[in-house]
Amino acid sequence: MKLVVVSAGLSVPSSTRLLADRLATATAGRTSAEVEVVELRDLAVEIAHNFTSGFPGRKLAAALDAVTAADGLIVVTPVFSASYSGLFKSFFDVLDPDALAGKPVLIAATGGSARHSLVLEHALRPLFSYLRAVVMPTAVYAASEDWGAEGLPERIERAAGELAAQMTPSAPVKEQFTVVPFADQLAALTSPSGV
């Protein structure tokens, strides 16, 4: 099982990457998933070249393949101008439009203040719904004041639990009743003892 984390943080160190790592650790702790992190900062030039040439470079192609092959995805972006970063959107623009169909995705974002938290609902959730991903109900936003405060660890754990549940194959459901073929039921109705 493979969990891929897409982090669009631009600085080093990055609060976006920190949130991505915490979400990945919490999810991987509930599954046997191998974690792979895709740092978009390192792919910026190849993403731009892909738009002009139509072909991904070697590193970008590997990142796109990893996302396509993932059993679950965590995506984290910083907030710029009340939405996801341009680099984040550009990466998903060069991804095959069918690559995320049916794939469980946990969305998350970081920003300077809590007033940007709606980016999860007005920008990220619609993007991944459009790509036909299965977006987890709990999204995680971390403002500067959230680090070290109450609430963030609980949101991380809840969101990770939802993603892990979607990634883990469920046990087959046992039938709790006996199925009687229709022909047998019909025969019972037309027989003298069934009248």
Question: What does the model show?
Answer:
This protein is α/β, with parallel strands linked by helices. It has one domain (2-194): 3-Layer(aba) Sandwich (Rossmann fold). It is 42% helix and 19% strand. It contains seven helices and seven strands. The protein has helices at residues 15-28, 44-53, 58-69, 86-94, 119-130, 152-167, 182-190; strands spanning 2-7, 34-39, 72-80, 83-84, 104-111, 134-135, 140-143. Strands 1, 2, 3, 4, 5, 6 and 7 form a seven-stranded mixed beta sheet that branches. Helix 1 (15-28) crosses helix 6 and helix 2 crosses helix 4 (86-94). The chain is globular.
Q: Could you give the topology of this structure?
A:
Elements: E1 2-7, H1 15-28, E2 34-39, H2 44-53, H3 58-69, E3 72-80, E4 83-84, H4 86-94, E5 104-111, H5 119-130, E6 134-135, E7 140-143, H6 152-167, H7 182-190
Parallel strand pairs: 1-2, 1-3, 3-5, 5-6, 5-7
Antiparallel strand pairs: 3-4
Helix pairs in contact: 1-6, 2-4
CATH topology: Rossmann fold
Helical run tally: 7
Helix coverage percent: 40-55%
Silhouette: globular
CATH architecture: 3-Layer(aba) Sandwich
Report how far apart the termini are: 56 Å
Question: What would CATH call the homologous superfamily?
Answer: Flavodoxin domain
* Count of distinct structural domains: 1
Estimate what percentage of residues fall within beta strands: 15-25%
C-alpha Rg, in Å?
A: 22 Å
**Helix and strand string, N-terminal first?**
EHEHHEEHEHEEHH
Q: In terms of per-residue confidence, which ranges show pLDDT below 50 for 5 or more consecutive residues?
A: none
Mean pLDDT: 91
